[in-house]
Amino acid sequence: MLTKSSPISTQLNLFHSELFSQLDVKDPLIQLANTINWTVFDNAFEQHYSQNNGRLSKPIRLMVGLLLLKQLENLSDERVV
């Protein structure tokens, strides 16, 4: 089953402040993530997932983000994870 990508996460850390507020918004990877239209990837990969069969997938944004990071930083599969 497909898990849709979510917009900028409001994930809380141990001290209950937003994780995103602790990051440097000038970081090139954060700027890249903010410019990518993630719904394009959701729509493109949606056809490859069943609606109500099997375990929930990881978000498409996570999978595409890891592939981008792997290519940009020339990392192995093990290192990118």
Structure, described:
This protein is mainly alpha-helical. The protein is globular. The chain has one domain. The relative contact order is 0.20. Helix content is 42%, strand content 0%.
Tags for this model:
single chain; 81 residues
Write the layout of secondary structure elements.
Elements: H1 28-35, H2 38-45, H3 60-73, H4 77-80
Round the mean pLDDT to the nearest integer and report it: 82
Q: Radius of gyration, rounded?
A: 14 Å
Strand fraction equals under 5%
| SS summary, helix count | 4
Low-confidence stretches: none
Query: What overall geometry do the principal axes of the alpha carbons give?
Result: globular
Q: What class would the helix/strand composition place it in?
A: mainly alpha
Portion in helices: 40-55%
Order of helices and strands: HHHH
Number of strands: 0
Give the count of structural domains: 1
Task: Describe the structure concisely.
The chain is an all-alpha fold. Helices cover 42% and strands 0% of the residues.
